[in-house]
Design goal:
single chain; 152 residues; elongated
């Protein structure tokens, strides 16, 4: 069921049927001790949400990435391509929220981006520095000068 859903996701099959298959797969794997299968299911959910690319789906993709991260630990690094795509969509959605004046939600997504970057690229990476700069800008625009100073 999981392989079928992964294949359909890669082929661009409609969102809802793939989502249903993944939910059924998760129901099966939720009781198993096979961590790898559960983690692959969460990764497939994340990839499906990112494939859709709709505003707001990046948060759902992050939630599933985070569940996989808890199961896989450092083995999650083999999914760097997914992390890069997830970062792109989180930052896109965060910027849209910032423009709407929804600073708390924008900051939440940037903090998720920071967590992903630290896991995949290292605490002292260029990715982390870039996100800290974005955080500073959003804090500053929201009027939180202390937050901005801490980020910069």
């Amino acid at each position: 069921l999981l392989r079928e859903a992964e294949k359909e996701c890669a082929q661009g099959t409609a969102f809802i049927p793939v989502l249903r298959k993944l939910h059924r797969a998760l129901e099966c794997f939720g009781t198993t001790s096979n961590i790898s299968l559960r983690a692959r299911t969460y990764i497939a959910f994340a990839e499906l949400f990112l494939r859709e690319g709709k505003e707001g789906y990046a948060k759902a993709a992050f939630d599933h990435w985070e569940k996989a991260a808890h199961l896989l630990g450092k083995d999650l690094r083999r999914y760097d391509d997914l992390a890069r795509k997830l970062l792109h969509y989180l930052q896109r959605d965060s910027n849209a929220l910032k423009e709407k004046g929804e600073f708390d939600r924008a900051l939440e997504l940037l903090h998720h981006s920071l967590k992903i970057s630290e896991v995949h690229f290292g605490e002292h990476s260029l990715q982390v520095a870039h996100i800290l700069g974005w955080l500073g800008c959003v804090y500053q625009k929201s009027g939180d000068d202390d937050g901005a100073l801490k980020s910069f």
